[in-house]
Amino acid sequence: MKLREYFRTKLLKSEKLLPAHLEDRLNVIISKLYEMISIEENDEEIYKHLKKNGIQFDGIKDLQEYSILFSNAWNNTRMVANGGFTPHEIKKKLGR
Fold first, then answer.
1. Confidence class for position 10, pLDDT limits 50, 70, 90
2. Alpha-carbon distances, residue 53 vs 8, 29, 56, 73, 95 (angstroms)
3. E-assigned strands of the chain?
4. DSSP class of residue 57?
5. What are the angstrom distances between the C-alpha of 40 and each of 44, 64, 91, 92?
6. Residue 82 host element (H or E)
7. Cα distance between residue 94 and residue 74, in whole Å
8. Which of 17, 20, 33, 78 has the smallest set of CB atoms within 10 Å of its CB?
9. What is the mean pLDDT of residues 62-90?
10. Is the separation of the CB atoms in 44 and 70 below 8 Å?
11. How many Cα neighbours within 13 Å face the side chain of 29?
């Protein structure tokens, strides 16, 4: 999962965590992020979650990289509002 690897790199830069603690931390960040995506949480709340967990962006290029990864995660996550379908699946069903 590319988003997970992106967050791993960010945490390794900012914090000195033992490997087991790093994986635990990543699991918490990723699980909550996908939960937030599935209920279509707003950007501000998602940003607060990331910041609270040590994920910070180092300029526009870094933010652009995250945006691409996040968009992919968003479009391929099952959403309550879509009856459990992903945005990508809905698009395919509509023939777009």
1. confident
2. 12, 7, 9, 19, 39
3. none
4. -
5. 12, 20, 17, 20
6. none
7. 18
8. 20
9. 94
10. no
11. 23
